[in-house]
Amino acid sequence: MRLRLRLSSIQHRRSARPSWLRRAHRLLALSFFWAAAACSDPGESATLTVWAHAGQPSERRVMQTLVAKFQQRYPHERVAVTFLPEGTYHAQVQAAAAAGELPDIVELDGPLVPRFVWQQLLVELDTLLPEQRTANLLPSIIEQGSFAGRLFAVGMFDSGLALYARRSNLEQHGIRIPTHPRAAWTRNEFEKILADLAADDLDGAVLDLKLNYTGEWFTYAFQPLFRSAGASLLPSAGSTTVAALDGPRSEALLRRLQRWIVEDRYVDPNTDDRAFIDGRVGVSLSGHWEYGRNSAAFGDDLLVLPLPDLGYGSKSAQGSWMWAITKASIARPRAAAFLAFLLEAEQILAMTSANGAIPATVDAIRASDRFGQDSPAHLFVTQLKEGFTVPRPRTPAYPVVTIAIQRLLYDVRTGESVGPAAVNAARRISRELAIVAGEAKEVTTDNDAQ
Amino acid sequence: MTTSKTFGAVVMLGVMTLFYLIPVIVMCVGSLMPDSRVLTDSLTVSRWGENLTLTNYRDVFERVQFGRFFLNSVVVTGGITIVGLFVNSLAGYALARFTFRGRRLFLFFVLVMVIVPFEAIAVPLFYLVSAVGWRDSYGVLILPFVANAFLIFFFYSFFLDIPRELEEAAWMDGASTSRIYWSVILPLAKPVFATGAILSFLFNWGAYLWPLLVTTGPEFRPLPIAIATFYTLPPLQWGDILAFGVLMTLPVIVAFVLFQRWFVESVTTSGLKG
Amino acid sequence: MRSDGNQSALAGLLLSMPAFVGLAAFVAMPFLAAVILSCTDAQLNSPLAMRFVGTEQYRRLLSDPMIRRALANNLVFAAVVVPVQTVLALLLAVLLELVPSGKRLFRVLLFLPVVFPMSLIAVVWILLYAPGETGPMNRVLSWLTLGGWEPRDFLRDPQLAFPAIILLSLWQGVGLQMVILSAALSRIPKELYEAAAIDRAGAFAQFRHITLPQLRNPLVFTMLLTTILAFRLFEQVRIMTHGGPGDATRTLLLQAVESAFDLQQIGEASALSVVLFCIVLCISVLQQVLLDEGRRS
Predict the structure, then answer these.
(1) CB atoms C16 and B24 under 8 Å
(2) How distant is the alpha carbon of residue A274 from its chain centre?
(3) Which pLDDT score, from 0 to 100, does residue C4 have?
(4) E strands of A71-122, at which residues?
(5) What's the structural domain count of chain C?
C-alpha cells in the first residue's frame, strides 16, 4: 500500500521538472529504488501515522493519552505518533515530503501553513471536518490555518503576547493601569513610563524584551509592534510604500527600539531569564507561557497588560502548533475524525493544562481555570477573540521572511545602522516573494495521490 | 641536566594532559551525579564522592531508545566498513594488477574523487535521493559511502608494492583469479585491511551531516544525531546527557585502548603516505 | 601487469565495477548535479518549474554580507587553528619523545578526543561553556586568573562565541596531528642528533636544523589537512550556536546546509557547495605541489 503510494507520488512530483532531470531521476530511481524499497518498513495500512513536535514531556504524555482514548472510542483505529525533535522539525518534514514519506497527519507551526499549502502538501479541511467543530474555534485559529480562503490546518490552542507588570510597582509610580487593549498605553505614555521607572532603578534597565531568546521569538514578538506602528514585515512589493519594511514607519519604529536598547539602556539583557521574577525590571514583554511562573512569583500583584499602542492600536501576537492532513494520506476521513476528536473541549483542556497554552475553542476557554473570565490571563483571550492579534505574514515565503526579520532585529539591537539593515532585509524578502509568486506549472487536485 | 629536562617534560606533559582531559572528566563524573549537581560540582574534586548515582544511566534507557541508536550506528558504520573494504580493495587490486580498457581513466577518476569533500556534494545528493523517495533506511546511510576514493588509492598503492612473483607462481599452478585473491593476496594484506577498517571506522562513526539530512524518526537515527537530539529534548537534564555520552563512547574507547597500536599506526600511515 | 587478453580485461573491469559505479553515482553525479543546480532557482518541494538563472546565484552569494562573513570566519578559523594546533601538536610530540616511560599512556589520553563524535563534543562543551560562575569554563578561567575573571556567556557573546568554537575544535584536532607528528619524530635517525651533539649544536639549533626539516612533509600534510577541515567546519556551529549571535559563528557549510535543509533553497545551497569545493580543490592542489617538492629535495 505505502509502496504504491510512494511510486505514484514520485511520478507526480517528477512531472513538474525539466526532462533532463526527469531522466536522471528515473535512472537513479531504477538503480536504487529496490534497495530503498527493500530497506524501508512496509508499514500497516490500518494505522494512522502522526508526526508531532517533541515538546515538553507533559505534552508528549498527554498526546499519548489522547491517542489511547481515541483508540478506545474507535476500537478498530490505530494511531502511531512519532515525536520529532523541535530544532529541526520543519526541515525534517520538508525533507520527508520531498521523498514522498509524509504521514497522514503532521503538526506544523501556524505561520508555515501557507508554505505547505503552496507546496501542495496539505488537504483542504473545510469539507472533511464537521462544521460544529470548526464553528467553535477562535477566529485567530481559523485565520492562521487558512490560506487563500480555505482551511488547511486547525490548532488545539493558540498563543498570546502581553506586558507583565506588578500592580504595586505601577501604583507606586502613579502609572495608569490599562484594562483593555483599547485603553492601552500610548507611545508617549509608554516612553514616559520607561523614563519614570528608569529614574528610580539602579541600572536603569526596566524593560524585558526577552533578548535571551533566539530565533522565531523576534518575529513573533516584534511584528505586533510593527503593526501597531502602522508598518509591516513585508517590503514595498508586498505592501504599500509607507508601511513597507523598508519604509518610513518601520524605520522610525526600529530607531525607537534601537534607542531603547542601545542609547537609553532601558532593556535588560535577561541572560538568566529571571529579569522580571527577580524584580530587576518593571515591565516584561512576554508570552502566555510565562504566566504560570510570573503568577507563582507575584500572585495577586501580577498584572497582564496589553502591548502599547504605537499609533495604530494595541496589537498582540498569535499562532502556535496546528494539525494538518497531508496529501500523502490515503485515509483522509479517518484522519479528519482524529482531528475532530482532538478539537473536543475535553481533549483541548487536557493538552492546554499540560502546556499552559490558550485553549482554541470558546467552550474550552470557558472551562479553563487559567484563562477563565476572572483570571488576569483572560486578556490573552480578549485579544484573540476581539481581533487585537495579528498573524505573522501569511505568505509561502515565510521561512525566508522570518530569518530576515530575526537578522534585522539583531542588527538593530547591536547598534547597526537601521536604514541599510532594513533595506537589506527587504531585498532578501522581495527576492523570495518574487520566487513564490511565480505561477505553479501544474495545479493538482486533492485526489491525485489516491 | 638530562634528568631535570626529563622531569620538566613529564610535569609539563602531565599538566597539559590534565587540562586536556577536563571535558572527559566532567563527562564521566557528571554522568554519575544527580542532575542538579552536575553544573556546580562536576569540577569540585572534593565533592566528587558525594551521593553518586546510576539513575542517569537508567534515565537514558527510559527516555530514549538508546539500544536502537547504538545498533543503527553499528549497522551503518559496520556496513560501510565491511562492504567498503571488499569493494575498494577489489578495485585497488584490479587497478594494480590488470590491464583493462579504461584503467588509466579510472585511476585518474579515483585521484580526482579523492579531492571532492563529502560536504560539497551533500546538498545535491540529498536532493537526488529525495527525488527518488530514498530516505530513512540503512541503505541510504550506507551505500553512498561504500566506494571510497581514498581507500581505493590506499589499497592500490599497497598492491603495487607486493611482489608479483607470488601470484605468478600460483598462476602457474593453475589457480583462478578469485583463488589467488583469497589465498595469496588477502593473507598478505591483513594489516592493510586492518588499517583500512580503522580508517573507515574513524571516517564514519561520528558522521553527522548525512544522517541529519536523510533520517526523520528514531528508527534509523545513529548516535551522533541521537546525542544532539537528546540534548534538545526537554527537560534539559545534564546528568542524563552526559550518561548518554559515556554510554556511546565507552565501547569505542575500550576498542581503542585494546587496539591502540593499530589505531595510531593506521592514522600515521595514512598521514605519512599522504 | 598481467596481459593474457580478454579474461584479464574482463576480470579487471568486473572487479573495479562496484567501486566505479559507487563513485560515479554518489560522488561524481551529485557533484555534476551541484554544478547544474547552482545555475537554477531549484527549491525542495516547490510546485514551480525549475528555472535556469545562469550565474545569478553566484553573483548574489558574492554580494551577500552574510556569506562574506561566513567565508571570513572560515578563513579566521584556518588562520588561528592551523598555526596554534601545529605548535601545540609539535610541542606535545616533542615532550612525548622526552618522556622516559608512559609514552603510550599519554599518547592514548591525548588521542582520545579523536574517537569522540564531534556532535558529542559539541554537546559536552555547551555544558562547559555554561554561563554564570558555576560554568566549568568560567570556573577554570577564574581559577587561572586568581578570581580576576568575570563570568561570561561564551556562546551568546558576539566577541567570544567564535573563539569558543575554535577552542573546542583545537581540543579535538590536536590529538590527531600530534600522533602523526610523533610517529614522524620517532623515525628521525638518532645519528643526526648525535652528529649535531658532537658539533656542539644546542637543543634549539638541533630542533631547527634537524627536527623541522625532517618533519617537513608530515607538517605540510597535517597543516593543509587542518586547513581543509577549517572549510568543513559545521557540526560545532550547527549544534552550539546556529551561526549566532548575529553571524559571529556562521560558516560556509553551515550556510549551505541551512539554505538547503531549513529553507529548501537547493539552488543557492548548490552554488555554495561548488564554492566550497573550489576552495578545497585549491588547498589540495597546493598540498600536492608542496609535498612533491618536499619528496624531491
Answers:
(1) no
(2) 24
(3) 53
(4) 78-84, 105-109
(5) 1
Delineate the domains of chain B, giving CATH numbers in brackets: 67-273 (1.10.3720.10)
pLDDT in tens, B124-137: 999 999 999 999 99
A191: containing domain:
161-317+393-437
More confident: A19 or C208: C208
**Residues A313 and A249 occupy one common structural domain:** yes
Q: What average pLDDT score do residues A142-146 get?
A: 95
Number of folded domains that form chain A = 2
Instruction: Find the DSSP H helices in chain B.
Output: 2-30, 35-41, 55-63, 66-97, 103-115, 118-131, 138-146, 149-161, 165-172, 177-180, 186-205, 209-214, 223-232, 238-258, 260-273
Check residue A439 and give its pLDDT: 60
Considering the domain architecture, whether residues A192 and A308 belong to the same structural domain is answered as: yes
| DSSP-derived pairing of the beta strands A358-359 and A157-158 | antiparallel
With beta carbons under 8 A apart, name residues in chain C contacting A98: 44-45
**A vs B: CB pairs below 8 A:** 92
Give C 137-176 residues with CB within 8 A of chain B.
139-140, 171, 176
Bridge partner residues of A157 (DSSP): A359
This model of the complex carries an ipTM of: 0.91
Reading chain B (274 residues) residue by residue, the pLDDT tens digits are 467 778 888 888 888 898 899 999 999 999 999 988 888 888 888 888 888 889 999 999 999 999 999 999 999 999 999 999 999 999 999 999 888 888 999 999 998 898 889 999 999 999 999 999 999 999 999 999 999 999 999 999 888 888 888 888 888 888 887 788 888 888 888 888 988 998 899 889 999 999 999 999 899 999 999 999 999 988 889 999 999 999 999 988 888 888 878 877 787 776 655 4
- Using an 8 Å CB-CB cutoff, list chain A residues near C156: 212, 271
DSSP state of B98: B
Measured between CA atoms, the residue of chain B closest to residue C102 is B10
CATH number for the domain harbouring residue C130: 1.10.3720.10
Tally of CA atoms within 13 A in the half-sphere of C26 that contains its CB: 23
Any CB–CB contact under 8 A between A43 and chain C? no
Residue C9 lies in a domain: no
In a domain, C58, yes or no: no
Domain of residue A332, CATH code? 3.40.190.10
Q: Do A197 and A311 share a domain, yes or no?
A: yes
d(CA A73, CA A69): 6
pTM of the model: 0.90
- Give the pLDDT confidence score for residue C261 in this predicted structure: 94
Strand partners, A49: A80
pLDDT of residue A110: 96
List CB contacts (< 8 A) between B232 and chain A.
Answer: 54, 85-87
Cell of B206: 561520528
By CA distance, what is B217's nearest residue in A?
A: A84
**Domain assignment of residue C26, yes or no:** no
- Tens-digit pLDDT profile for residues A91-115: 999 999 999 999 999 999 999 999 9
> Which chain A residues are Cβ-neighbours of B130 within 8 angstroms?
95, 98-99
C211 alpha-carbon distance from chain centroid: 25
